[in-house]
Amino acid sequence: MKLLHLGIPTENKIEKKTYSYVEKIKLYVTNPDEHEFKLQFVWAEPDSPLPEIVKKEKHLAIQVDSIEEAIKQFDYVAYPPVSINKKLKICFAVKDRVLFELAEVLN
């Protein structure tokens, strides 16, 4: 397991930040590697399929070897696994009232 970033939801896009668009989940994200503290600002479109907890709560993103195995350690899945591109699959899950983004690098 590797800590990737802290995700911070915003009400709208922040000026002077560059966003990428994740079409499958209708989410705009900044690159945490461009922030000195690995913060990723996220803004969901109103019709995003993500649940409110993901749209409104901060999350810790961690890289896991297998999402299917990792989610067994969590209290519940807030948003099921989805491949967002050819290289990355993510899901959101909660453990001890903390929201996590689980990220699996695809081969």
From TrEMBL:
Source species, domain of life: Bacteria
Protein name per the record: VOC domain-containing protein
Source species of the chain: Anaeromicrobium sediminis
Species lineage: Bacteria, Bacillati, Bacillota, Clostridia, Peptostreptococcales
